[in-house]
Design goal:
Elements (H helix, E strand, L loop, with lengths): L6 E3 L3 E4 L5 E4 L24 E5 L2 E4 L3 E3 L6 H13 L5 H31 L5 H30 L1
Parallel strand pairs: 3-5
Antiparallel strand pairs: 1-6, 2-3, 4-5
Helix pairs in contact: 1-2, 2-3
């Protein structure tokens, strides 16, 4: 991860949506292939590729937690992805699923990076430990910053 990278890619994860659909994030960094709908064309760098789709299962390549320059990118990507998994879902239900998936994704990523940081604390000092601690700290700070922005948006209406 570069010092000034404006996003954190999610770790591999599985999220069970309230509708019963399982969303799997493979954790594969990729660029979206194919055409995007006009309303999400600006999200090309954030949009995952669909790897597999079944009735109650959708696997995508990645999800990205953006910085403040793209404050709604994750929510818009989640809405697009969930719409693939639940075609014809009404707007209210879609928003509920997006909120649920976003919180789960943040929890999973924050837990991963905190666990990795804790494990590194028991490793003898070395150059690699120092670099990994920087990575874990940067990732944790990024996720916490995203959560703060999310809370502000909810508070501001």
């Amino acid at each position: 991860m570069e010092e000034k990278c404006p996003w954190v890619n999610s770790v591999a994860a599985e999220i069970d949506l309230d509708s019963g659909v399982r969303l799997e994030i493979a954790g594969i960094s990729s660029i979206h292939k194919g055409k995007l709908a006009p309303q999400v064309k600006d999200l090309k760098m954030f949009m995952p590729n669909v790897i597999e789709k079944k009735n109650d299962y959708l696997k995508v390549s990645k999800l990205t937690i953006p910085d403040e320059r793209s404050p709604l990118a994750l929510r818009r990507v989640l809405a697009s992805v969930i719409s693939v998994a639940l075609p014809g879902v009404d707007r209210k239900k879609l928003l509920e699923e997006v909120n649920h998936a976003e919180q789960k994704l943040l929890d999973i990523n924050e837990n991963y990076w905190n666990d990795l940081s804790d494990m590194l604390d028991s490793v003898q000092n070395s150059g690699i430990k120092t670099e990994l601690k920087k990575l874990t700290n940067k990732s944790i700070e990024h996720i916490m910053s995203y959560r703060k922005r999310l809370l502000r948006r909810k508070h501001d209406g």
